[in-house]
Amino acid sequence: MNVPSHDEQEQLRRLRWQCRRGMLELDHLLSRFLELGYRDLSEADRLLFARLLGEQDQDLHNWLVSRSAIPPTPYLELAERIPAVAGEHSPGN
Amino acid sequence: MSLPTRHFDALIIGAGGAGLNAALQLASAELRVAVVSKVFPTRSHTVAAQGGVNAALANVLPDSWHWHMFDTVKGSDYLGDQDAIEFMCREAIPTVYELEHAGVPFSRLDNGKIYQRAFGGQSQNFGGDQAARTCAAADRTGHAILHTLYQQNIRARTHFFDEFFAVDLVRDADGICCGALVLEIETGEPLLIEAKATLLATGGCGQVFRTTSNAHINTGDGAAMALRAGIPLMDMEFFQFHPTGIAGKGMLITEGVRGEGGYLVNKDGERFMERYAPRAKDLASRDVVSRAIVTEVKEGRGCGENGDYVMLKLDHLGEAVISKRLPGIRESSKIFAGADPVIEPIPVFPTAHYAMGGIPTDRFGRVAMPAGHGSEEVVVGLYAAGECACASVHGANRLGGNSLLDILVFGRLAGKDIIEFVRDNPYRRNADSASLDQVMSRLSRWDRKGDGMSVHQMRAELRKCMEDHAGVFRTEEIMAEGYEKLCELRDRLPEVRLTDHSKVFNTARIEALELDNMMDVGMSIAVSALHRQESRGAHSRPDYPERDDQAWLKHSLYYQEGDRMDYKPVRTKPLTVESFPPKERVY
After folding, report:
1. In angstroms, what separates the C-alpha of B373 from chain A's closest C-alpha?
2. What are the structural domains of chain B?
3. Residue B587's pLDDT is what?
């Protein structure tokens, strides 16, 4: 496994704080995904994940947890992947 | 010591509903106001409040603020201050209209008025028929309110310090609070913010318990800052637990699941609530169900490898009912419990949900503490509002729909009071060097290197201890043992070390400072609970099962120095109406 560079570590810490949300469900899903799934993402998907963290909590909850709304097209795959990787049936659990 | 310093009329710490509503009043009055928030403001925990906000608008059924007041006094198990409750219930009406005018998209009736839904604990005519008092913006009320307030604050030019962590309050040479030292998370650099008035609005502290529905940010920062400034915390033993949180995780599984026919079973598959509440069974009150679950676990009938949870069974309801009537539950359970409730039960355990206690304030949000001989004194220049504060409107238990109301009413009134305070006290105060040294030493303590216990481990031990010894099951023996364990943990806290001493975005350092706060606030809950020898509202003691108005109709005050307890009387006299004398609480 590659050891993250200094800059990458800093970026990871920054993202880790962005995973602090107003809802426990999102705290849990996003921070676990960062821990378990982020490093397997392509460069483009990493940027997309960072962008996703800029979205509103209520929308993220609807897209990732309750599945009561369909996310905008660019997020579709990531919105499937996050609960699959960070949920309790994931291999990392 | 030379520190970068900024000056404002008012400093608000916390950007949830209380902080933002206060800030809006101040900025609209052309005061220079700073809001410090450790996360981006719209990621505050207010966003998770989906239920709604109570106000006796009488849009759906007849209603009056006086009936709302009665319900709140009764719900508080008579520990709420009746002047503050009258004030809140009256102010609820203009507060909701003000939010409506600010742009909160409340759900509407066909006639265009704000829709109001019925909630438990609401009555017409002082305990009569069900009332409909809760105003909601669909199922995203907290989100709608928070966003509206944030946008209005941007328009009013409130100065936001996003991703800054407040370390401690600072004082001038006369000992008067004059702002706070904060840490910029991005750079790791301290910043002194001096202000004529400071408002603590940092929200709840559910993270002190292992299983909680609170977000990770709810670490009791403001309450701990108050404690370290010598201010007591009031009624901290009153903590609302929800019986069904996802085991080991804390996310709420709504009571609606049991309302639809779901029921709890232990490891033998026994429907154990039949033993604890033969009539109401799984629909018994929250504290009864919570205690029954913990008793099952304690007596070895818990499920799973460690026997530390029970199961909530609803597969018998069928997929159609679960999907139609309990939307979201299936998804939540699949993601966080790894269980599809259509085919298997959900592992559950009581989850810490809401702190009724906090920093004692009067009804204008001014921090107030005993001054000897039964009198009270306002702490000059210091305010508190929201879940971190205790204006004493929830007493021993909070009604649904009254938490958003509390933060909005008292945030708004604190803002209005600060405007007057700043007009009367226009002079700048400067932090005293001794006060700054004290705060800086708290920061530099985490720069110490060497071997020691990790923050993560200490945090886990603290939260487990709080859950086991200050949770829903509270006997003298369990709590006294818990206090000893907590003292031991507190003694070991100086040995905890960080391994990462970098500056930029060092979130481990922030978590260490949060750990300090959790330790301080956790202790206040444990000590207050140990001393109250009665059962009232959310504080339930099998060894003292009755409410004891003779000895305990009084507020607890916990002081950090020497873990000392003091008490003060409940304000039973309302502002303009007759008192509601204590009665047995029957629903």
Report:
1. 43
2. 244-350 (3.90.700.10), 442-542 (1.20.58.100)
3. 63
